[in-house]
Amino acid sequence: MMTESRLESARKELSMIRLTMAGRFCGTREWVKLGRPITKGELNLLPEIPWGDEILTSPCLFFPEKAVSQTHLLFLSVPESIRSLTGYLPRQFTRSDIEAWHMKEEEKFSAINSSFSWHLVPIAPILSFAGRSYEEQLALLPEGYRVMSAVDATIEHLLYRTSFGKPLLESGHWRNCRDVTSDGKVVKVCETEKGVSYGRYPEYPRPTTTLAIERMP
Length: 217
What we know:
By secondary structure, the chain is α/β, with parallel strands linked by helices. It contains 8 helices and 9 strands. It has helices at residues 4-20, 28-33, 40-43, 53-56, 68-71, 82-88, 134-139, 150-164, and strands spanning 25-26, 72-77, 117-122, 145-147, 174-180, 186-192, 195-201, 210-211, 213-215.
């Protein structure tokens, strides 16, 4: 059980990390703003952040002239799925286009829960992935990074918009995730002016589609 001293220690750690990330940090505070507060019981499960100053202040692999803290977003995922999150945020969440195909029972990926986990994600799209097949994108995945799940990519969009008051990426920018649809296609996530939308790769291919990636713990 997380004691009061441990809880206080965790709060101090989060405050320090928030400063290191220069605001590019979304934790329990942002979940409260979204209408999904973290309970005391859930705080007992709050994991430690796996990246310290040594990593966060080191040069970014993708933009070497900047530090990781300047190019990445550090955010907290909680045990929610794409389906369950729509109950909290019906007006600012997923679009109901094309009969909300991703919410159908056979689309298992939308029912998968994330976990209490921290994610360190490049904010800007990595253009080296653009215009390539999914298999080519995977081959270019740098050491120390992995492909994100669709639910975590969705949470990233939501928390970023909550924190900064604007979309994470330009409207219409798609990113391939690691989940697959019921017919074996790769799930891709995009934020539009109307909300978060889901697509199937390679249907409706776009030359700008990149890969949703995160740093491994």
